[in-house]
Amino acid sequence: MNTQDNYKRWLNSSKVSAKDKEILKKMSQEEIDDAFFKDVEFGTAGMRGVLGPGTNRLNEFTIRKATVGFSIYLLEKYKDATSRGVVISHDNRNMSRDFTLLAAKVLNDFGIKVYIFDSLRPTPELSFTVRYKNAVGGIMITASHNPKEYNGYKVYDDKGCQLVPSAIKSLIETINDLPNELDVEYPIEKDRGETIILKKDVDDAYVKEVEALSINPNLDKSDFKIVYTPNHGTSYLNLKRIFKDLKYKAIPVVEQCDPDPNFTNVISPNPEEPDSFIRAREIAIENDADLIVALDPDADRVGLAYRVKKGEYELLNGNESAALLLNYICIEKKRHHKMPDNPIVYSTIVSTQLGKKICDTYGVAYKEFLTGFKYIGNEIGLEESKKNPEHTFLFGYEESYGCLASPLARDKDGLQASLLYCEMALFYKQKGMTLGDAYQKLADKYGYHKDVVRSFYFKGSDGEAKMKQILNSLRERPVLDIDGVKVVCIEDYLYGSRYRNGVTTTFDMERSDVLKYYFEDDSVVCIRPSGTEPKVKFYVGVVSKTKEEANKKVDEFFTSLLSYLNLA
Q1: Residues with Cβ within 8 Å of residue 117, at least 6 apart in sequence
Q2: 132 to each of 123, 199, 209, how far by Cα in Å?
Q3: Residue 31, class by beta-carbon neighbours within 10 Å (0-12 exposed, 13-18 middle, 19+ buried)?
Q4: How far, in Å, CA of 373 to CA of 347, rounded?
Q5: Per-position DSSP letters for 25-85, written without gaps between them
Q6: Spatial separation of the C-alpha atoms in residues 568 and 563, rounded to whole Å
Q7: What is the 3-state composition of the chain as percent helix, strand, coil, each rounded to the nearest 5?
């Protein structure tokens, strides 16, 4: 069906509510096109989209269809799916609890037991709970850091890891074989599954394991203050408890602690954005706090701002904070003789190259994957399943403010990160250093690394075509230099090909529509369409002698690159 056929199908369906039909009638042609030009899809972080009526929207019909497909998938994959069950959690967003209960009902109809929490819980706790309850899978209802208009649906395997493409392929095929979202029907099992409300022991077990990650738990915390905000999301209760248990002086941004679906008291719930820190910064100045910690709504990402001097705070980006934490973990685990045998760090192809240099220094193996923490979580499980594992997981990170210090979860964990970031900041303070000073020490040793990502949005059916055109045009007319700095290697992840010194070779990795350029001066550029939003993301990483030189170089690279693509 085309866009107009889908629109009319919804408008004329008796299953669509009168309220939704009124919304449909008031849509402009542009809005109709965006809501109906395709079915909402699974991407690098599951199914995510704007709430509302439409095939390309998150609503009761698209959630129901996805859960029918997931139920069929689980029953085919696991003989004991009905008894082991599925864990479902959700964030604070509009419709999150409704979608949780709807998904639970569908799974119960298929005879599958379901575990749900009594209220919202973080994504990493969902990942932990799948393994804690020995469930066959999990569902997290969240749109992560996206604006309030969005929600999402992420599926997890029996290890608490988001499904990687090789695993999700059969699920997508199952969903695609179903009738359209309005007409999906299924037989209800005579022995329906039950929905069980999880008890406090799950929270206790998760928090206990997070707290056990402290490397230097006995640092004097009497002269160290933290301001933290959950940005109306899921992290508040667990993080408050962790700070109290470990005796940190932690001040919450009270007006941002309620699970408000409309994010009333914060401009942006995304800790990648400076607007996420506005109120927290004000409170930090009032209390002369040392560190600001901001989590996204589902608590898998963390942003940091450190005090430069009284009344002045500076933000760290996800690459900088991850590199600092990796370096701290390596130094302190070595010092305390806690470094595991054959340690390994996992990262992604769009993350800072500084991490690899740190790993080389400390004799730690390093491996990269496509964007998406599910690849890291999956690799942890694959390594653990070996009879004689080659490596022991030490740390995982990606540029988008996510990291993992323990495989107790198989997704990035903002609670783990918050604990260790605070400990690291305190550790350096007691040495007379800020986090900025600590990063400068890394820069003195490895060069000043500056990694920046910028996005261009392309909505509707025309937008999707433009996104594909950008990558295709680069394949037809490759970038050979930027501002006189020559490209020395091009990696095309759609074909698994690497071009260097006039020779093309292949490499083994999941296929994805991504291009990566390596330059003679150690700079890197990566270009990829987002898997969850209608945008193309441009990643530029440069290495210079000073921060000022690096900032200038990044700006010059972006200006030339966007001009080359006629996007300036």
Answers
A1: 89, 197, 198, 202
A2: 14, 12, 12
A3: middle
A4: 8
A5: HT--HHHHHHHHSS---EETTEEEEEBSSSTTSBSHHHHHHHHHHHHHHHHHH-TTHHHH-
A6: 5
A7: 40, 25, 40
Other C-beta atoms closer than 10 Å to the C-beta of 29 total: 10
For helices 96-109 and 60-77, the axis angle rounded to 10 degrees is 40
334's tokens: 């070595």
Pairing verdict, β 515-519 and 524-529: antiparallel
Residue with tokens 């206790």: 204
Encode the chain (568 residues) as per-residue pLDDT tens digits: 799 999 999 999 999 999 999 999 999 999 999 999 999 986 556 789 999 999 999 999 999 999 999 999 999 999 999 999 999 999 999 999 999 999 999 999 999 999 999 999 999 999 999 999 999 999 999 999 889 999 999 999 999 999 988 888 899 899 999 999 999 999 999 999 999 999 999 999 999 999 999 999 999 999 999 999 999 999 999 999 999 999 999 999 999 999 999 999 999 999 999 999 999 999 999 999 999 999 999 999 999 999 999 999 999 999 999 999 999 999 999 999 999 999 999 999 999 999 999 999 999 999 999 998 999 999 999 999 999 999 999 999 999 999 999 999 999 999 999 999 999 999 999 999 999 999 999 999 999 999 999 988 887 767 777 888 888 889 998 889 998 999 999 999 999 999 998 899 999 998 899 999 999 999 999 999 876 677 899 999 999 999 999 999 999 999 999 888 888 6
- Spatial contact of 236 and 262, defined as CB atoms under 8 Å apart: no
The span from the CA of 515 to the CA of 492, in Å, is 5
Residue 173: name the closest of 77, 247, 238 by CA.
Answer: 77
**Residue 17 a catalytic site member:** no
Tokens representing 541? 């990483």
In the set 144, 418, 530, 544, the catalytic residue is 144
